[in-house]
Structure formats: C-alpha cells, structure tokens
Amino acid sequence: MASKACPSSSYMSLSFLLPRCCPQNVPRRGIKSISKPRQNRFNRSLNLPLLESTTAAALQRKQFTTPLRTGALGTKKGMTAMYDPDGRRFPCTVVQMDRVQVVAHKTREQNGYFAVQVGSGWKHPSNVTRPLLGHFAEHKVSPKRDLVEFKVQDESGLLDIGKTIGASWFQEGQYVDARANSRGMGFAGGMKRHGFSGQPASHGTSLTHRAMGSAGQSQGGGSRVYPGKKMAGRMGGHQVTTQNVKVVKVDDAKGLIVLHGSIPGPHGCSVKLSDAVKKPWPSVPTHLLETQPTTEPVSNTA
User: What's 300's DSSP letter?
Assistant: First the structure.
C-alpha cells in the first residue's frame, strides 16, 4: 500500500511561486561620499530663527544701518581743487547749506518709524500749495524750497522743531553719504547708456554700426522681449548715492562744506548729506544738540 505524500513537502516544492519579501534588517547598499558635504550658501537650517514680518521686527533688523541723527540738505555749487600737506592736488565739491531747519517729526506711534523732516531754502508763499502752507504755519516755520525726511534709530535723534542746522553739523574728517538726482542726458542709445560694444565697423555691416542688435529670441524665448531688457532710452535723472565721501573743510559762517571728490547731480541741485552707513558713527559734540533760536522770521501765509 502506497504511503500518502506529506502536504508540507508539496508546499516546499512550490515555494518558488511565492512572492519574494525583502528582509527588514538587511541594510541597503549605497554609494557613500568620502568628501565632506559642501556648505549651503542659503540659510536653510533647522536652528535658524523664523523671519518675522512685523514692523517692529523690520525696524530691529535695520537698527545697525539707520543713522543715529538726522542729515542735512545742501546745494551743490560746483567743484574746485585743494592741496594736501604733501603737495598733492585733489578735486573737491563745494556744498552750501541755506537756512536748513527742522520742520516736523515722524514717530513710531503715529507713523511707524522715527524720522526728521528737514527743509532748506525759502519759497514765496504764492508758489506754495495751501495744504503745505498750513503745514509750515502749524510748525511756525517759513515755507521751504526743498523738504525731505531723514530716518533715525530712536527718539533721541529727533531734534526740536525749528532748530537750524548749520554747516558745523558735520565735522572735518568724517565721512558722509551724498544723495542727489543725477544729471539728465536725455534719450541715449545702447552704447552710451549701457556700454554696448556696437556692431562691426566693416565686414558687410551697413548703417547699423551703433545699433543695439537683437532684443530677444523668435521662438525659444516666447516671442517677446523680456522685462528689464537693456535698450535705448532716457538716461540719467534718477537718484544716485555716493558713499564714504570725506568732509575736507567746514565753514560755518558761510554755510560751506567741502567734500573730497565728486558727488552726483548738476550744479545747483539739492544734495542730501547724512552720516556714512559703512563707517563708524561720528561723535557729536553736545553743543550741536542744544536748541538754538531761529533767526529767520516766519513769513506771512496770507
């Protein structure tokens, strides 16, 4: 009599039909780099604090680049030259300050930041709008030709309204940042405006020697001109900042400030002078922060 086959043996013979399972404890093989990982140039680590989007956090981030005191307004008179003790000649720019006064304040409670509104020059009341006349009359200051704001770090940088800022506000040897609107040069081509090299002078080039050339692709770039493409257009007439300009000489009686080198803007333009951001803040004498009486009369607004 034949013996019955064991059912387990039949299952073992058909084990190749069962799905294969990957063991859980066997580590996966891979290629391990022998060099150290390259440092990421983006701030993407888990230990960095979250970037806050509040106004107070933004002012906190800018506290190291915001000046401690206000700047001043001046008029560019022209350029001259001076000699250093070694006899070397260097160019200078003369800036004159004309009746520079503090007109108003901006506070964090009302405006979200601290700033000093400064005006310079004089303007006839008939050429000033009525809202601006009321603004000057409220603060008891004569109408000004130019009116700008200078941000300061905190409340200690707010000068008294009506205080006159003279040329001695800046000291000889300190560095300032000069801001002014550059000289307008009208409509200019690509070679003058952006420094393009132009087309070849020969080899079949006809009437396009100073032409810009192609402005974009026909098909691969979407058949359009990309925004911000350097082309011919109006050149100059925008604000330019020259940093770290050294104050060579100060004449407080005549309101003159002599700066080393050139600054932007044509002769007669308004220049905004403030303490250099990339240099240590200057030590301000205490007599400059004291309130001085205003000598110019308040003009009639009628």
Answer: P
State residue 27's pLDDT score.
59
Using the 8-state DSSP alphabet, how is residue 278 labeled?
T
pTM to 2 decimal places: 0.74
CA 155 to the chain's CA centroid: 23
Q: What does the pLDDT read at residue 15?
A: 59
Per-residue pLDDT, averaged over 36-59, amounts to 74
Find the mean pLDDT for residues 218-245: 92
For every residue of 121-171, DSSP letters joined together read: S---GGGS-HHHHHHHHHTT----SEEEEEE-SSGGG-PPTT-B--GGGS-
Where are any strands of DSSP class E within the chain?
72-83, 89-96, 101-106, 115-120, 146-151, 175-181, 186-188, 233-235, 239-251, 256-260, 270-275
Phi and psi torsions of 75, nearest 5°? -115, 130
**What residues form DSSP beta bridges with 249?**
258
Separation CA 135–CA 142 (nearest Å): 10
Largest Cα span, the chain: 136
How many whole angstroms separate alpha carbon 73 and alpha carbon 47? 45
Hey, what are 58's tokens? 């933004």
| Alpha-carbon gap, residue 140 to 294, rounded angstroms | 10
What 3 state SS string does 33-46 have? CCCCCCCCCCCCCC
CB atoms closer than 10 angstroms to residue 153: 18
Residue 19, φ and ψ in degrees, nearest 5: -70, 140
- With b meaning 16 or more CB within 10 Å and e meaning fewer, what string describes 219-257? eeeeeeeeeeeeebeebeeeeeebeebbbbebeeeebbb
End-to-end CA distance of the chain: 135
Query: What residue has token string 């200690």?
Result: 156
Q: Which amino acid is at 83?
A: Y
